[in-house]
Amino acid sequence: METPTSPAIVFYDIAFRPPLAESTCAPNPWKARYALNFKGVPYTTEWVQMSEISKVRRTVGAPASRKFADGSDYYTLPMLTDSTTNSIIGDSFDIAAYLQKTYSVSGAGDLFPAQTLDFVYEHDLALFAPLSVRAADADDNLRAYAQFNTHVDAAVSAHVPLLAHGLPFDPATAETIRAEFVRRAGVASWDDLAIRGEARAKMMDSLCATLAPLAEMFNRDAAGPFLLGRRASYADLIVGGWLRMMSVTMPPEEWVDVRAWHGSVFGRLHEALEEYAEVP
After folding, report:
1. Going by CATH, does the domain composed of 9-276 fall within 3.80.10.10?
2. CA angle, 122 as apex, 121 and 123 as ends, to 5°?
3. What is the pTM of this model?
4. Contact in structure between 270 and 259 (CB atoms under 8 Å)
5. What is the pLDDT of residue 139?
């Protein structure tokens, strides 16, 4: 009798509170997980405590993919290893590009079909965590997707106080992780990162207005729910990663509001992406 073999791909995701498959909510790991499931590539999940991310990346051989403003390394996830090609990929966008190149005919098709991705969000804010920055790519199409990714990340990250206090930390490490978030944000306490009352209502209004041009893009093809109508692409997964975070970290009544904004385009997208939301 043959012994079952493990999938060649190991996907490294952030461990929040148990049950892990229900609490996982970081947007970049979700972008990559959606991409893995979209391509239908078998993989296993390696759950990593936040306090262990830098150690695990160094052990595997993946350098930090970003820098804090002070120049220090920012170690984060996702990360992927593939023993069939001896590859280590440590950035969500690079993971999607790798999957498309290496497993081009697998799953639901092309992750990067040509399309107009003209959502722009300009800001001068010091964000809570550095944005993913991709080096200039010779492929114009990939470059357009990378720019879209950066602008979507910036737009939602500018409103991250709406999400931070809802992060479902593992109770065993919650105090340590909160202290690190406080240090990174340069505030005195975890409570300083909370936003309540009128200030929260104003930030919700700001997020709604910020996402309005993005919603218009989803309304270009009435067939929906994706930017290209019935055809999903990595651009949809980028937005979907942030929606997944909102669904876990926002108070339920606010998540209901987000789903209904702009003719319910985000609610329909979130529901449609359930097809690619399996957590093995």
Report:
1. no
2. 120
3. 0.94
4. yes
5. 80
Cβ-count burial of 15 within 10 angstroms (0-12 exposed, 13-18 middle, 19+ buried)?
buried
Cβ-in-10-Å burial (0-12, 13-18, 19+) of 138 comes to: exposed
Tell me if 31 sits within 8 A of 96, measured CB to CB.
yes
Contacts of 31 (CB under 8 A, 6+ apart): 92, 93, 96, 149, 234, 237, 238, 240, 241
Alpha-helical segments (H) within the chain: 20-23, 27-39, 53-60, 92-102, 140-157, 161-164, 174-185, 197-210, 212-218, 234-249, 252-272
Cα(34)–Cα(13) distance, integer angstroms: 12
Phi, psi of 33 (to 5 degrees): -65, -45
The residue behind tokens 């669904």 is: 247
pLDDT tens column, 171-220: 999 999 999 888 888 889 999 889 999 999 999 999 999 999 999 999 99
CA dihedral 146, 150, 155, 161 (to 10 degrees): 130
Question: Which of 95, 148, 102, 158 minimizes the C-alpha distance to 126?
Answer: 158
- Side chain identity, residue 2: E
Output the CA–CA distances (angstroms, integers) from residue 164 to 46, 69, 109, 154, in the order listed. 24, 20, 34, 15
User: How far apart, in whole angstroms, are the C-alpha atoms of residue 112 and residue 97?
Assistant: 8
